Amino acid sequence: MDITFVSVVTNFNQYHKLFTNNPHVQKYTLRTYDNRKENLPIPARYNHFIDNELSTDGWVIFCHQDFEFLQDPAPVLEKLDKKFIYGPVGVALQKQKNLHLIFYKHRLKPSLHVKAHFNGVWKGWIHQGDKDECAGEIIHAPEIVDTVDCCCIFMHSSLIRQHALRFDPQFNFHCYCEDFCLAARQKEVFTKAVQLSARHYSSGDMNKLFWQKYDALLNKYPAELFSTTCVSSPQAIFGRLLGKRYEQMKTIFEGKNLSDTDNIARIKNFFYSNTITSHGYRLIKICKIPVWHKKI
Fold first, then answer.
1. Whole-angstrom distance, CA of residue 33 vs CA of residue 140
2. Report field, pTM of the whole predicted structure over 0.85
3. How far is 45 from 33, CA to CA, in rounded Å?
4. Is residue 78's pLDDT more than 50?
């Protein structure tokens, strides 16, 4: 089976241990990009491979230098549908229902209320770090997710060629795989988590740069509801959005003359908008937060 592992490397001692000397992967093509000097964005390296070295009929596994395969991936890959993107761990935003018993002071019987909410559900299970820790939930068959983690994402080369899939360079070191999944979803190409025996030795750094890129991700897909392995809680997602909208609202209102027709229109648009997106969705926003969208 034609399998190529593509990694951007700054620590070759670790890479040799986890890839070059790993019996599960050393028999396949190992494509490394030495990033010790130039430190180019990871999407730029991945796109270089897609543009110049992508095979016509093979699997491509884009993964971090600190990601270790604890099994030969070939038996798993040969059973997969080539029409999907895959990763060993991902998250799906799912609607869940909670049952609540409400007791009233003057009633003998309680009332039963059903409360629906969205929650980010992890799919796939991997070892995390060098200790006996884990991330995700074991799955027994590939399952649809919104996005997969940047530590490892893979797909068949024919899918990349057919849909001209690429990584967005603006997401230089954060959120580039999440963006890849969401951009593909707009082309009706969906992502699945698949169970693999693997270990990821780091958990990433959710620093200021991460949040800048996460905000860019939210702005790029205003009509999409999605979750990621880094931010899977809907409370965190909407909390981030509300914080941003508050800053926008301050900009609109401070020093504005409300008698001015243009300013009144801007304020109305801030609180409510109903538009058709470039992808053919009717999108309704309240305080600039997407609350409903439908393909028309």
1. 34
2. no
3. 7
4. yes
Orientation of helix 176-185 relative to helix 42-52, angle to 10°: 50
Quick one: what percent of the chain has pLDDT higher than 70?
Answer: 75
Tokens linked to 255: 């020093």
Q: What is the pLDDT of residues 116-142, one digit of tens each?
A: 566 778 899 999 887 777 877 899 999
9 vs 35: CA distance, rounded Å: 6
Among all chains, which residue has been given the structure tokens 């991997």?
Answer: 126
pLDDT reported for residue 224: 76
Per-residue tokens: 35: 């990033």
User: What's residue 110's pLDDT?
Assistant: 62
- Look-up: residue for tokens 């600039």? 288
Q: d(Cα 229, Cα 203) in Å, to the nearest integer?
A: 10
The DSSP string of 47-71 is HHHHHHT--SS-EEEEE-TTEEESS
Q: How many CA atoms lie within 13 A of 281 on its CB side?
A: 15
> Contact at 8 Å (CB) between 51 and 164?
no
Domains of the chain: 3-225 (3.90.550.10), 233-296 (no CATH)
